[in-house]
Amino acid sequence: MATPTSPTELRQWLGLANYLHKYTKDYAGLIQPLSSLPKKDATWLWRPEHKAAFDSVKKSLASAPILMLPDDSKPFHVVCDASDFAIWCALMQFDDEGRE
């Protein structure tokens, strides 16, 4: 994913990241530097600390151990999402802790 260049792009990216936050340790701490940027009254100024936070969340999501073997005794469900710049879909099950 390319670095966001506007508040709208950052909001879109944070929407996806927020959906997957359960797989990221200390997610709230990682995104904290980004939290003021998507606000309507805020001036868009992408600084090195924003890039570092963005990259940290991307790295954490990319390295999350979320793949596991399917359990035929549990139901499957499909999750899909689309936007102007991306589309994704996943076949999921809930684990023993109730996470997708």
TrEMBL record:
It comes from the Eukaryota. Signal peptide: none annotated. Coiled coil: none annotated. It comes from Phytophthora rubi. Pfam families: RT_RNaseH_2 (PF17919). This is Reverse transcriptase/retrotransposon-derived protein RNase H-like domain-containing protein. Transmembrane segments: none annotated. Residues 46-99 form the Reverse transcriptase/retrotransposon-derived protein RNase H-like domain.
